[in-house]
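Entry for magnesium ion complex. Fields follow.
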Amino acid sequence: MKFLDEAKVYIRSGDGGAGSVSFRREKFIEFGGPDGGDGGRGGDVWVEAVNGLNTLIDFRYQQHFKATIGMHGMGKNRAGAKGADVTLKVPVGTQIFEEDEETLICDLTQEGQRFRLAAGGNGGFGNAYFKSSVNQAPDWANPGLPGEEKTIWLRLKLIADAGLVGLPNAGKSTFLAAVSRARPKIANYPFTTLHPNLGVATIDGQEFILADIPGLIEGAHEGVGIGDRFLGHVERTRVLLHLVSAQEEKVGKAYKTVKHELEAYGNDITDKPEIVALSQIDVLDDETLKKKTRELARACGKTPFRISAITGSGMTEVLRALRDVIVEANAGTQEEKPAKAPKLRHRDMLVSDDDSDDGEQQG
Ligand SMILES: Nc1nc2c(ncn2[C@@H]2O[C@H](COP(=O)(O)OP(=O)(O)OP(=O)(O)O)[C@@H](O)[C@H]2O)c(=O)[nH]1
Ligand SMILES: [Mg+2]
């Protein structure tokens, strides 16, 4: 299945209801005066990050979200009812962009985070509001303000715990298939993987999410091959597993090529802990294996793990190493706050779930 990580959605908040023009009429009451009520506020459009969702697939089936309009005011000083809000429920890690696909509106990184994408229009004042000493019988009222409408983009950056990187044919998809129930396409030609795949790996009863992305080649940051556009998916992982195929002629060079592309991509991706593994070692004899291990160690500055997804050798060790980094990183962030505060373009502020429930009072 293709992993859906982007969706275009049209939203519209509700129009405000109009104020009413009305006068009190009763049999024995002369000059009853104006009693037209105010219109209700239109409903807002909110977005909220919730647990239990992994994709934006729901937005493929529903792309229009409209809040309802505020009701008109009525006589006897009756105000119109507020329009109902509508909330887009998205997975944690979703970013919302303007129609230009570049301007970030909000970045939902935590469960329960909410953001108001479009405010409902205010209701208009009824004629009772305009009563004053100099005009005791105003015969006008305000119309309600229109709601906002716009097209936005939802983009989900996978929040996998570990990300697989490497040249094409390094064995990334084979690794994912060996340690999880994911069934990515595997073949001995470059760029078998065209879209990121996710899987849940289990080690010693603990689980973590692993992301497999298309291979990187020299010049990926300039768009060569599939380019580096899927690196966003591993940007938020805790750790990278860098696979270098033992079938590569020069393993040191293979390692450095990918490392260079990661550096060119930026976004602090090279600050992440990296675990290096020489993969597909079943194809080598002991002599060559030793030589290639040494070569790779020299390039990356540490002893690489040696694994074969086919025979299973070294797999447990590498999974444990990944798990240890993830557990440690998760423990660290529970104490401190997330390193980066979400960038907000709007004057609106993020409200968390325990603030007032629908956020706004009528106006
Ligand atoms: N002998 C052996 N072959 C392997 C091993 N792992 C992967 N292969 C083979 O290497 C080839 C490439 O594997 P993939 O898992 O598709 O490689 P990839 O890194 O996902 O490649 P891209 O998706 O193109 O970037 C396939 O023919 C696999 O069968 C291994 O441990 N041992
Ligand atoms: Mg692959």
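NOTE: Residues 172-173, 184, 192-193, 212 surround magnesium ion (ligand 2) (CB under 6 Å).
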